Amino acid sequence: MGELPVDINIQEPRWDQSTFLGRARHFFTVTDPRNLLLSGAQLEASRNIVQNYRAGVVTPGITEDQLWRAKYVYDSAFHPDTGEKVVLIGRMSAQVPMNMTITGCMLTFYRKTPTVVFWQWVNQSFNAIVNYSNRSGDAPITMGQLGTAYVSATTGAVATALGLKSLTKHLPPLVGRFVPFAAVAAANCINIPLMRQRELQVGIPVTDEAGQRLGYSVTAAKQGIFQVVISRICMAIPAMAIPPLIMDTLEKKDFLKRRPWLGAPLQVGLVGFCLVFATPLCCALFPQKSSIHVSKLEPELRAQIHEQNPSVEVVYYNKGL
């Protein structure tokens, strides 16, 4: 068997990202929780394989499947724009186990105000880490900006949850079970833009099809953040809408009445089952390498691109996750 050729495009995902199926296969790999079990040495080895290959140096004896595996291990742990290693719980591979636990607890402990406040705070703290870790672009954000965004987003989420909880006091118990979902959906609209406010101020990098950077665009940032908000809300629907319906039925049965301690683990398990599929499928709703027509960009950037690259009609950007 000969040496692996150096013309495999590992800058892009392995599967066709113009189709939903291709994006779904890509994100099932990216969000695989097993990537969390990889050691630092394994991550570094994958990074070396990928960076060497991009530089035209092929690791001896490596196969194409092993190269793609290294690429996805590398992508699972390192930011695509900055190259920094992402904190463990901020990685997309942590989405299912972390959200399974947090969402399950939000759905289980929704009756009392202190537990509502605690779990909404935990959830938004986790979301803040994920949103920052998977932001688009490489523009720095100060600790002051990060702190302000975190406090504002968390306060908004908790206030939303408590407000909705007070409105459902006189409604059927089943309605109360959906308060966590409504709060999470509303909080995503607050948390994501706030944690990525730097992008809305200075823009995110836009490139041509070959990856050549053309400038920074706030318009692209707005479009990317909007797509991420939609994906996150859709991601929460199965995990926060289906288990409450099932649990409302099961809690009326003798089996759970005699074993109330089974309620929380059962709910967490149901949430986890939904998230295993909802997380990658909803991430796949929009291409991570999104595009926008030059005519929709800011006038200054549009003029700059037309002057330097008159043939470019569409630019590309990383929308973040």
Write a structural description:
- The radius of gyration is 22 Å and the shape is globular.
- With 321 residues, the chain is mainly alpha-helical.
- It has a two-stranded antiparallel ribbon with strand order 1-2. A two-stranded antiparallel sheet has the order 3-4.
- The chain folds into 2 domains: 20-85, no CATH class; 93-318, no CATH class.
- The model has no long low-confidence stretch (mean pLDDT 82).
- 61% of the residues lie in helices and 6% in strands.
- It starts with 19 loop residues before the first helix and ends with a strand.
Number-wise, the strands total 4
Termini distance? Answer: 38 Å
Integer average pLDDT = 82
The outline comes out as: globular
Largest sheet at a glance?
Answer: 2 strands, antiparallel
Rounded to the nearest angstrom, the radius of gyration is 22 Å
Structural class: mainly alpha
Write the element-wise H/E pattern from the N-terminal end onward. Answer: HHHHHHHHHEEHHHEHE
What strand order characterises the main sheet? 1-2
Q: Please give the count of helices.
A: 13
Instruction: Extract low-pLDDT stretches.
Output: none
Strand content: 5-15%
Number of domains: 2
Family: Belongs to the sideroflexin family.
GO biological process, one term: serine import into mitochondrion
Transmembrane segments: 266-286
Protein name: Sidoreflexin
